[in-house]
Amino acid sequence: MKKLRRHALKGRLEAGVDEAGRGCLAGPVTAAAVIPGKAGASWLKEGLDDSKKLTPEVRQRLRTRIEQEALAWAVGWATVQEIEELNILNATHLAMHRAVDALTTRPEFLLIDGNRFKPHEIPHSCEIKGDGRFLSIAAASILAKTHRDDHMLALSVNHPEYGWPQNKGYPTRSHREAILRWGSTAMHRRTFRGAQGRLFQD
User: Between the N and C ends of the chain, which has fewer C-beta atoms within 10 Å?
Assistant: First the structure.
């Protein structure tokens, strides 16, 4: 397995930034920013990697370590209403900015997972598949994923028919079928267009 890099530029205070929920039918988009500090090296021994490659149990264990030991971390959100108003790309960038602005320590540089970002006043670079290349982005991916998963679980209490504890709002077959049967909720992104065209009808 390729080892995650600890820094893009050694000696520079860097924050990794990643998102979760961009491709969902329901729920907010969530972003996290993490400045690992000296603790980051120990997370590698615990299996730190892109959150998509880890089991829920490993993600949760690493989340606890990251939140206890990071120099700074924060989570930002963009609501369903903001996604509808701004479009999902701009809402994702808004959530990322909110996460960065909430950091208690100001980084000198941002490492952004992906290939596009709305510039912040802090310099940045976009890193394609950065969650599998940089320690700080991998840590951010875990926080974004776990915080959003917890949020979807809480939302499911009032909407159990959509299977959000399992699908987390993503467009699975069962989720689509539930929408066709039960209709949409205020937590659904009505402007979503899938491979079959508009899923939600006005």
Answer: C
Q: Which helix (H) or strand (E) holds 89?
A: helix 88-101
Per the DSSP assignment, residues forming a β-bridge with 131 are none
* Tokens of residue 22, six digits: 């961009």
Please enumerate in sequence order all residues whose Cβ is within 8 A of that of 132, keeping only pairs 6 or more positions apart, or say none.
Answer: 2, 4, 49, 50, 53, 138
Residues 14-194, CATH architecture = 2-Layer Sandwich (3.30)
Task: Spell out the domain ranges in the chain.
Answer: 14-194
Tell me how far apart the 2 most distant CA atoms of the chain are, in Å.
55
Torsion of CA 173, 177, 180, 184, to 10 degrees: -70
Nearest Cα neighbor of 152 from 131, 173, 138, 166 is 166
Q: Is the pLDDT of residue 198 over 80?
A: no
Q: The tokens of 202 are what?
A: 């006005």
- Indicate whether this model's pTM tops 0.85: yes
Q: Among candidates 67, 27, 12, 36, which has minimal Cα distance to 158?
A: 27
